Amino acid sequence: MILAKCQYYLDKTAPKKLERWIFFSGLLMLYFIRILYIQTHYLVTYVLSIYLLHGLIGFCTPQEESIPDPFDNIDEEVYIPQTVDDEFRPFMRRLPEFDFWWLSVRLVLISFLTTFSSLFDIPVYAPILILYFIVISLLTAKNLYRHMKKYNYNPFYVAKESYKVGND
């Protein structure tokens, strides 16, 4: 009964993309305010960041099996379609936008709940985790950028091409 009610409200939020991401941003800001206030649980925040980065990778990569993973060795050669089926297909994400949002919300909620338990407060040196996360993010972004350039897709561009009709 409770799960059906939750699913009903999740289905109602599906077409409201902007509102969902505003809610997620507010939830994430609330989490970071909590972390700054209590000055603990840095390892939980690091793990949350890694999982959010992993979700972003799934969101940015295509679903098609013919296109390799972004972490494969990428040649600098130009991609040439081999068959008719290998030509243009619309961009299908490995992780759809709604699923990425729902994964992100659940991760932040779980992380937020763990800040109320001292069991998850493992002492670490936070600057090293931050530096390590930045390095991982930059390397991942570089690989994704190379992959997007090689296979000529842009996961963030969703508008259709429009043509002007008129007397020029």
Automatic annotation (TrEMBL):
Location within or outside the cell: Membrane
GO BP terms in the entry: protein retention in ER lumen; retrograde vesicle-mediated transport, Golgi to endoplasmic reticulum
Membrane topology field: Multi-pass membrane protein
Entry-linked Pfam families: Rer1
Keywords: Membrane, Transmembrane, Transmembrane helix
InterPro entries given in the database record: Rer1
GO CC aspect terms: COPI-coated vesicle; COPII-coated ER to Golgi transport vesicle; endoplasmic reticulum; fungal-type vacuole; Golgi membrane
Membrane-spanning segments: 21-37, 122-141
Highest rank taxon of the organism: Eukaryota
Protein name, as recorded: Protein RER1
Organism from which the protein derives: Vavraia culicis (isolate floridensis)
